[in-house]
Amino acid sequence: MFFSVLAPFSIGLSFFLFGLYAMRSGFQNLAGKKMEQWMYKVTRTPAHSFWMGLITTFILQSSSAVTVLTIGLTNAGMIPFTQTVGIILGTNLGTTITTELVALKLESFAVPMLLVGAALWLMPRKSIRCIGLVVAGFGLIFLGIDTMKVMAAPLEQSDTFRSLFLESRHSIWIGLVTGIIFTALIHSGTATTVITMGLMSNQILTMETALAIVLGANIGTCFTAVIASIGTNTASKQVAWCHTLFNVAGALIFLPFLSQLALVSAFLTDNVSMQIAHSQTIFNLICSLVALPFTAQIAAFIQWLIPDKKR
User: Looking at the UniProt record for this protein, which Gene Ontology cellular component terms does it annotate, in alphabetical order (predicted)?
Assistant: First the structure.
C-alpha cells in the first residue's frame, strides 16, 4: 500500500510543481525585467500595491516568490517597507486565481495542452515560445492532479490513514498544523490545496478539516520568505514577518468560523473542489479588503515590533 500511495503522489507532485515552474518561467520571460520596474513604480498607494501584488503573484504562480522579490527590492532600497504592505495583501488573493482554475477539473485537457505547448515551444519567436511554456505548464499541472488522484483509493482503504483523519475531525488544529508543515516542506500552498481537493473528492476529509489545511497552507507559504530575509536589512525582515503575522492572524480569526465558511461555499456550488477554492478565495478576499484601509497602521505596528536598530 505504501508504494501504491507514494509512487503516484511523488510523480504527480513532481508534474504539478514542474508545471508551476514552467508557467512561472514563461510568464517571467514574457514580462522580462519590467516586473521589477512595475513594482518599483506602481507602489505609490496601498491600492496600487495591492493590485501589483495580485497580478505578480498570478504571473509568478507563487506568493512566496513575490514576497521574496519584494524582500530583494526592499533590501536594495528600491521600495520602502511602508509601500510593501499592499503588495503582501495582494499576494494572498493572487494565489487563489490558480486554485480556482484548477478546481474547474480540466484534467482531460492535460495532454492536448502539453502537445500545444510543445508545438509553440518549437516556434522561432521568443514570445510564442514563452506562451508555449505557460500552456505546457498548465498541462503538467492538470496531469499532476490526475496522477495524484490514483493515491486516493489505497488511502481510502487504509485504517491508519482513516483513524488519523477521524482524529482531525475532533481537532481542526491537526489540519492547520498539517497544512503549515506540508506547505513549508514542498514550498507550494497551491499544491497543498490541490492535494486537499483530491482527498475531499474521495470523502477522506471533512470540509472543516480541509479548510483548516488550506488555512495552514496560507501560513506555510511564509516559510520561504522568512528564510530569504535572513541576513538582510531591517526593512526586508519587516516584509517577511508582516506577511507571516498577517497570515497567522487571518487563520486564527477564521478558524472558529470554518463551519459557516463551509456553508457559504456549499451554497455557491455542489462541487467539493470548487467549494474549497471558493472558501480560500472568500477567506483571502475578506482578510485583504478588511486590512487594506489600515496598511499604514499595520506598517507602523510591524515597525514597532521589528524596529530599525540604526534609528
Answer: plasma membrane
- The answer to the question of residue 273 being in a domain is yes
Three-state DSSP state, 171: coil
Task: Quote the cell numbers at residue 221.
Answer: 507559504
Contacts of 1 (CB under 8 A, 6+ apart): 154, 157, 158
Confirm whether 311 is domain-assigned. Answer: no
The answer to whether the beta carbons of residues 220 and 92 sit under 8 Å apart is no
What pLDDT digit, counting tens, does each position of 99-133 carry? 777 676 666 777 788 888 888 888 888 878 888 88
Please report whether residue 310 resides in a domain.
Answer: no
d(CA 227, CA 213): 22
Band of pLDDT at residue 263, cut at 50, 70 and 90: very high
Segment 17-41, tens digit of pLDDT? 777 677 667 766 766 556 666 666 6
User: Is 63 strand, coil or helix?
Assistant: helix
The stretches of the chain forming alpha helices (DSSP H) are 2-31, 34-41, 46-60, 63-75, 85-102, 110-121, 126-148, 152-157, 159-170, 172-186, 189-201, 207-220, 222-228, 234-254, 258-268, 272-291, 295-305
Flag whether 14 is in a domain: yes
Res. 248: pLDDT tops 90: yes
Grid coordinates in use for 231?
541576513
| Count of domains observed in the chain | 1
